[in-house]
């Protein structure tokens, strides 16, 4: 059995909008037709009551003065006793005892069994001799049933005609409104690299949609361009250590000298470490680009900074650590904090002359990590790009010092995805100052 919802969703928007609009319009019009046809009878009765009330009031006044009821060519005005017997000398009145009781109470009576249906009003009047008289006025409502049925018939026909007109109008209106969408779809199918959808002249939802799609295309092109650059840079960076390892191995094979082989092996190990570090950085960036973020938890930045300085201490520049005596909890993953500290410290040690200073500062909403070195610093024109992937200020020096061009890019990526910020400026010690702001873990 076919799914009705699936059949409905496979229809075009034009068809669905037209059907819904037509069905709702028809339902409303049919309801109005039923209600309006039922109001025809009360309108006829109300008109008859207005005329009967005027004649009844005049007849009551005459009876109370002892005069006969005035004749009326279109109405029956009769004077009865309280039992319903005529006292005006006229023929019997076609009223049941129950009708007489209702009329004496001042309530109108509609006799639907008469042909045509008759409407009666009554009131009690006191004659000059003190006797009670029932004055009644009645008339036949000609066309009562016919008006009701014909009104319903024509209202139903009108409802069908209006519903058909609404269906045709909705179909044309939706079709016209969707033409820009069709043009946009055709234009999207012909779009090449770097091209954008045409923006409609009308300031409507389609213009907003076209703007949003163009923004999406711009982000797609930017991501594709960034991926091409990243792939090219990665291939270039991987080629260098691989080529170096191959050359060193060929030298060792060509000149099987034990002393030379030991030196070659040392160079191979150094290049292999550089290659491993580069691959790890590339994998970390790839996971970040794919949205793989480890769960965040409170991490004591002061303790992590102390551990990092212990790991990075060696024969090079001295490291000074300034941290508060109390824990400094930041919201991140422990591996991310270690990655930031290790890369910033290694970068500072690589370029420092004699000293590197690590400081942790606590504020109300953020905790700052500050790493200073006394090296040559980073020129101002390079500070905006120093966190780009594979960007080096001095390529040869960076290669000789073992840098991969990914350390600072990893720092920026890790801090950014946790809602923090990283920037570089001039250190009071003359070198570079890197500042990382982490959100405080509540």
Automatic annotation (TrEMBL):
What InterPro entries does the record point to?
HAMP_dom, HATPase_C_sf, HATPase_dom, His_kinase_dom, HisK_dim/P_dom, HisK_dim/P_sf, Sig_transdc_His_kin-like_C, TCS_sensor_his_kinase
Primary subcellular site in the record, as a coarse category:
membrane
SUPFAM superfamilies membership: ATPase domain of HSP90 chaperone/DNA topoisomerase II/histidine kinase, Homodimeric domain of signal transducing histidine kinase
**Top-level EC class as recorded in UniProt:** transferase
Q: Which reaction does it catalyse?
A: ATP + protein L-histidine = ADP + protein N-phospho-L-histidine
Q: Which UniProt keywords apply?
A: Kinase, Membrane, Phosphoprotein, Transferase, Transmembrane, Transmembrane helix, Two-component regulatory system
- Where would I find the HAMP domain in this sequence? 175-225
From which source organism is this entry?
Actinokineospora xionganensis
Q: Which residues form the Histidine kinase domain?
A: 233-442
- Localization, UniProt: Cell membrane
Pfam families per the UniProt record, alphabetical = HAMP, HATPase_c, HisKA
Enzyme Commission numbers on file: 2.7.13.3
* Cleavable signal peptide: none
Which CDD domains does UniProt cross-reference here?
Answer: HisKA
Keyword Transcription belongs to the record: no
What is this protein's record name? histidine kinase
Work out whether the entry's keyword set contains Nucleus: no
Q: Which GO terms describe its molecular function?
A: kinase activity
